[in-house]
Specification:
Structural class: mainly beta
Shape: globular
Helix content: under 10%
Strand content: over 45%
Distance between the termini: 40 Å
Oligomer: single chain
Order of helices and strands: EEEEEEEEEEE
Length: about 120
């Protein structure tokens, strides 16, 4: 059974950092692209970043480019989202996602709150 579990969220002040983790089970992480998404209150879920299974290439939304770094460790079955220089507008529930077969699997999400 494909499963993703996020962790690492919390309450931080503007300018601080957090590292989110996404624990994968039921599939080989090295073979699938992992995406990170977020959803702020009253807003639609948006793509934040992803890391390709093919060559490890990465994508970042313009709003996080230069501040966030996506990575993965297949041996640990983990994907990560390092978030630096956090801003209040980064406040959201963050999700990881994978497509194995015909459907997408989402984690349960982890709350990130950036506030002074």
């Amino acid at each position: 059974q494909v499963q993703l579990v996020e962790s690492g969220g919390g309450l931080v002040q503007p300018g601080e950092s957090l590292k989110l983790s996404c624990a994968a089970s039921g599939f080989n992480l090295d073979y699938y692209t992992i995406g990170w998404f977020r959803q702020a209150p009253g807003k639609e879920r948006e793509a934040v970043s992803c890391i390709s299974s093919r060559d490890g290439s990465t994508y970042y939304a313009d709003s996080v480019k230069g501040r966030f770094t996506v990575s993965r460790d297949g041996t640990k079955r983990m994907a990560y989202l390092q978030m630096d220089s956090l801003k209040p507008e980064d406040t959201a529930v963050y999700y990881c996602r994978v497509r194995v077969g015909v459907g997408y699997t989402w984690g349960q999400g982890t709350q990130v709150t950036v506030s002074s």
